[in-house]
Amino acid sequence: MANISIDTHCHTLLQNQFQNIFDEEFITEICRSGHLKKFTAENTLMNIGDEMKYFPLILEGSLKILTEDNDGRELLLYYLEAGDTCVITLALDQSKKSRIRAIAEEFTQVLFIPVNKMDEWMVKHKHWRYFVMKTYSHRLNEMLGAIDTLAFHNMDDRLLKYLRDKAMKTGNNEIHNTHAQIANDLHSSRVVISRIMAKLEIDGQIKYGRNKIELLKF
DNA sequence: ACATTAAGTGATT
DNA sequence: AATCACTTAATGT
Question: Which domain holds residue A168?
């Protein structure tokens, strides 16, 4: 009984995301191949150095993907949302160790699929192949954008972009984060973020208070 | 009222 | 832009 209800739950989530891309039969196969896990905000679902036996398919919610430098400080790479899969998981080196960390941003349901399925589906299902290629190029573009802002823009611009991205993602121009959390994501320090915030408020770009930033201009 | 956490400030590298 | 050391302000218990 329990199994059946879990299966239909998973199946429904898959249908919501993929019914226009994959046929019914394949969705059922995906559902059978993976196991569903639920996470709440701030849960780490994959860490640097973890062995990659599974790749994630996000069915609900969103994740943030980060790397770490030698001193253990974090840098936000990009967000993954429902309907995405983590393609850089697939770019494995010999060690099969993850180079990234994935943290849930909110309540999130993820289907973990054994990596060998990837090979199998890539040859067997052309729609899967298209899907992977599409997400691959999408992520690559985002990464190029991230490199661009890192290399050519100052912190002020990076912070504004960060806030806009976040507002866009949540569909709300109020962001509920501390300056320290943002500093972590941007690989900066709390003091620096606080000072730029103050400057942006004077410019009339934002308004903010404790744990809250309101974006005024887009 | 007290402790904890977030944000502000000045000086230094 | 980053870090340190310290202050002030907001919030939780």
Answer: 154-215
CATH number for A15? 2.60.120.10
- pLDDT for A1 equals 46
Alpha helices in A19-153 (DSSP H): 24-33, 115-124, 126-152
Which residues surround strand B, with CB < 7 Å? A 178-180, 190-191, 194-195, 197-198, 208, 210-211
Quote the pLDDT of residue A121. 92
| Number of domains into which chain A is organized | 2
Between CA A175 and C1' B8 the distance (Å) reads: 20
Model confidence band, residue A90 (pLDDT cutoffs 50, 70, 90):
low
Residue nearest to nucleotide C11 (CA to C1'): A210
CATH of the domain at A202: 1.10.10.10
From the CA of A168, how many Å to the C1' of C6?
37
For residues A134 and A193, membership in a common domain is answered with: no
Helix (H) or strand (E) segment spanning residue A166: helix A155-170
d(CA A37, CA A54) in angstroms, rounded, equals: 12
Share of chain A above pLDDT 90, in %: 39
Q: What is the pLDDT of residue A93?
A: 59
CB atoms within 10 A of CB A119: 10
